[in-house]
Phytanoyl-CoA dioxygenase (Pseudoalteromonas rubra), 302 residues
Amino acid sequence: MASIEKQKLSFYEQNGFVRFEHALSQELLQRLRELSVRLEASAKQELADGAVRNQYYLSNESGEPRLFRYNDLFFDDPELVLELLASPTMLAICESMVGLGCVPMQLDLVYKYPHPHPHIAWHHGAPHPRNYPYLNVGVYLDDADLDDGCLRYIPDSQHKILDIYTLSSEHGWQIPGVVQQPAKAGDILVQDMMILHSSEPKRSEGVRRTIYIELRPVEGIAESGKQSVQWAELRKQWMAHVIKRADPKDVPADWLAFYGEPQYELATLVNLIKEKWEPPIPAVWSHRDVEHPDYPTPADLR
């Protein structure tokens, strides 16, 4: 079983985020990149055909349509999704940072193109009672360099919802205590779902693609009561397929009994999850538009 260093866990507990370097094999990284290219080409073709679906979002700020977000990758390439979730580092994160009962809730892909395509303003992820872990796991398909729209965090800000409007109105991108967290292609960046974070406009050419995976134990899903018991059970079935796909040495012994054998074939499970779709818990943003000379668009990019 792949293990997580104690100092990584300690850093996460103190700050609410942590990076795992070189977490993906080059072969898996390349296949995920190829999937991202196929999905963007498909979305653009559907736009041209006038048949855009609500599974993805296109931005047109520069006059050229660019994919901003593509949700529910499990619907498009479930085999590759299982391989990603069954990789040693992902299973180690599930075991050490979430624990028995961990399930994948969402698995989406975010594309970040240079300004004027979208930045990510300050926000908290899904609010919840905080009695169980709730992670947002970023799998980087491209580099996210310092001062180029990489993630910004306010360490240890995950415990309650802050006044985002006041903080961003007074400080813009430079809220006191802010840190930038760069990442390289193949890294995994784990953050507490509720940590206050943002991402400035990208300045360099090209696209940055990040797969975001929400992980939470089924007990936490039940506690929040935002999704149904059936919805949670289907995610447990998804995890059962992940375990079956994984190298046995990477699977904790007690997980086999908890998750059991998958009750549905993979194609059937994909269709059930699609048919029984329920919305994720929404993030928390500023309740008003912020007016600041350097935020959200930096002055030199206006």
About this structure: The chain has a mean pLDDT of 96. The chain has one domain: 6-217. Residues 6-217 form a domain with the Jelly Rolls fold (CATH 2.60.120.620). The CA atoms of residues 197 and 288 lie 17 Å apart.
